[in-house]
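[stage:ingest] chain + small molecule (asparagine)
[stage:ingest] validated
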Amino acid sequence: MRVIVHGGAGSTPEEPDERQAVLDEAAAVGAASPEPIDAVEAAVRVLESDERFNAGVGGAVQADGIVRTDAGVMRSDREVGAACSMPGVEHAVSVARIVLEATPHVLVSGVHAVDLAADFGVGTEAELLTADKRESYQSEDPPAGSPRDQIAWLASRFGAGDDQAGEHGEGGSGPTHAPDHDTVGAVASDGETFAAATSTGGRSYALAGRVGDVPQVGSGFYCTPAGGASATGAGEDIARVTLSRRATDFLEEGLGAQEAADRAIEEFEELTGSGAGVIVLDGSEAGSAFNTGGMQTSVAVDR
Ligand SMILES: NC(=O)C[C@H](N)C(=O)O
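[stage:predict] done
[stage:export] tokens:
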């Protein structure tokens, strides 16, 4: 099995060495799995459990003070599953896999996705909000509660800091609110078939119930017989251009994984002027590209 994982695009992260060690472990765990879908689920679960990453525990907090998780998974036979807006669910990727394997649907949301998780034995009562994130949320004078109050409050905060997913390039000029990069993803291949998965807590201080690119097929993740892709960055902009689908389009046109990743990010930047990253795996190579300050990746092969 060959696996590439990423730990999110954004400004240069804190604790890069510790994060790299977790990414290396995630890739190795994935590479030891029997099938590509097992590999991406296993790799992403490692990252969801580490609070340095914005997925599962340590996810970004929404404007009402709650962390809600999203994930999507796809196989190269075009079977898809995704789940979104789930409070208390650490392993969103496992719920996405349940949607793929046990339902006739491609996306299940909110309380119903949490019910589905519970019914299939995925934990639904995790404390996802870390002490640090709770403290920075509380220091931002949280909004009273109605969606209108939240919108007024988030106008100057959502995506506005130099440490946020849309941050474009090394060190932005905005204030520092709460980092919302560090989304995670994985793409795996057994030499014949592929799978891709992405998991996130979204972007800090979004409207409660906001869902970004991650569980949207073709945006946060995509997979075809030519290969797979997982994206990260400013989710609204990624969804506008269906970044992962574009990366796999380039594979289908005959480009290699690195060239496909480069072209997809070039096109994304031209169309949106925003920040993102993508990992791509094809039949022979792994590629990655980003136009933000950083994106850590790891590749593992186990045969
Ligand atoms: N950090 C990220 O990659 C955020 C994610 N793409 C979202 O918008 O939900």
